[in-house]
Amino acid sequence: MRGMGAGGSRHDLQERGQAELKDVPLSRIYGLFRKYRGQLTAIVLLALVGGVIGLIPPLVMREIIDHALPEGNKTGLLVMVGLLVLLPLASGLLGVWQNHQNTKVAQGVMRDLRQSLFANLQRQSLGFFTDAKAGEIIQRLTGDVQAVQNVVSTLVVSAVTQSAIVLTSVGILFALDWQLAILATVILPLFLLPVRQVSAIRKRLRIETQRVRGDMSARLGEIFGVSGALLTRIFQQEPQQQRQFSELNERVMQLELRLNLVGRWFGMVIGVLGPLGTALIYLYGGWKVIEGTMTIGSIVAFAAYLGMLYGPVATLLNLRVELGTVLGVFQRLFEYEDVVPEISDREGAEPLREVEGRIEYCGVSYAYQPGQYALQDVTFSANPGEVTAIVGPSGAGKSTLIGLIARLYDPTEGAVTIDGRDIRDVTLHSLRKQMAFVTQESFLFHDTVRQNLLFAKPEASQEEIEEACRQAYIHEVISALPQGYDTMVGERGHRLSGGERQRLSIARAILKDPRILILDEATSHLDSASEAFVQAALDELMRGRTTLVIAHRLSTILTADRIVVMEAGRIAETGRHAGLLAADGLYAKLYRTQFAKAGADAEAEMRASTAKSR
Ligand SMILES: Nc1ncnc2c1ncn2[C@@H]1O[C@H](COP(=O)(O)OP(=O)(O)OP(=O)(O)O)[C@@H](O)[C@H]1O
């Protein structure tokens, strides 16, 4: 199956909330953190020191109550109070530093992960993006990676330091009074039992909220993208979208409310249980004080320690749920890292040097899905400098055919060669350097006109850019824009007209100056003036290059050196216009239904506009 990787095929990529330890190789997670292990050790040590410092104040209070006060020792009192001020200060300062180090490590790991995922996504062939949802890719690269932040704070720091704090506190409790300590260690887990239940509920709610929020962003992206906004208005779907959105919106609100309410209840239970524990300690401990077997200072210290234990114990109880979530995130990220590109350089692939431009398809078949052939046994050649027009009904396999020459896909059977070399034997970079694609949808990035042009040739000078634009009959239009070549083209180039966008993408191809040109002529009808400009620009572009063109224009098929007629994935006929017309086959039928009509329409429009201008 295409796209199979160690993490499975891209079709298997799923949204998972939780994962088990056995599902995720820990060594791989460790690998991500390895280069930060020095910093991590420092973080854990700092957290331990901070935690231990935090444990001292109750002992100081015991000293004040049991010794300084009864003995009237003012100096001792001053020293102890000083300690009560300084200790939290020291632990606070350590906390700031440690938190900064935490974030540094987490951000470093996140940066490395994003970089590695981005690089792997860039290597993927087109098929990957046809199947994956853009929103999901963005979610993994931003949202999921963000979740890694929790790993450092939750797992590394919490697990180690909280365990240390709990162990030390329990040790101190036993040293203070072993009977009371046994009582405390028995009642504490009872009080904390609801914590697990509540956090499991909160976790579920949080995952659900994130999912609904994700849906909301995806919907908003579609609805308010220029194409979506246009479609909505044309089909007058505003009220329906309003309704759908308000449902989602309501759901987000309800979920957030429930999440908050569960949180509040939880806070309340802890708020009540905490003092209840303290009350029990005072009851039992107070009894012992009255009987003279325990000091007042010890009870105060004891109660303080007990209060300090709730947080860390709750965190430790939650650790399994947290660990599951974190592992789930890593699992999803590793899946993306593991998708093996379908198309990549073969071992020992050599660069394709300057070519003459002879293209041959030798017995090429291609199936998107096993057994379902979009192309079957296609054989033809395109001579250097000639124009080969590909025509055929919708779904005949024309786009698939031209995609193979740039190795957007590799043939299931057969081979495509350039100047006699199998294109799978040369490096992808050098292959694609030899060709330019002008597609139906002239995609432009949300950037300036200049940057969009430089995409084809980053080192091009202003003169080269302008020359290419002159040849594409677009220079005048650009010069008349408010900031000329520095004007932003708007989302997907929607500031420019369809014809202008096409000419800009033609200028981009001219700038690249390739030997091989792949064209997918737009089916949309431009007005005759625009059409004439686009045609003139295309003629300029095709001159002297080997051109494969999915033809929709009459002029293209009339002047083509060869016409390849496709039908249901096979070549039905090849030849030139006159010969094919005479043969009275599929081409003649297509010509009568599509091309002759398109030509007549264009001619009529041309005549009308000339009459009007007179
Ligand atoms: N990504 C894909 N996955 C599965 N099948 C596909 C995919 N892309 C195209 N196909 C199928 O392959 C066949 C050929 O499609 P192709 O786009 O090459 O036709 P076409 O001649 O360019 O059509 P049109 O003129 O309508 O653009 C069609 O049956 C189509 O449904």
UniProtKB/TrEMBL annotation:
The chain crosses the membrane at residues 38-56, 76-97, 150-172, 178-195, 216-235, 265-284, 296-317. It is found in: Cell membrane. Residues 359-593 form the ABC transporter domain. InterPro entries: AAA+_ATPase, ABC1_TM_dom, ABC1_TM_sf, ABC_transporter-like_ATP-bd, ABC_transporter-like_CS, P-loop_NTPase, Type_1_exporter. The keyword Acetylation does not apply. Residues 42-325 form the ABC transmembrane type-1 domain. It is a multi-pass membrane protein. Pfam families: ABC_membrane, ABC_tran. This is ATP-binding cassette domain-containing protein. The lineage of its organism: Bacteria, Bacillati, Bacillota, Bacilli, Bacillales.
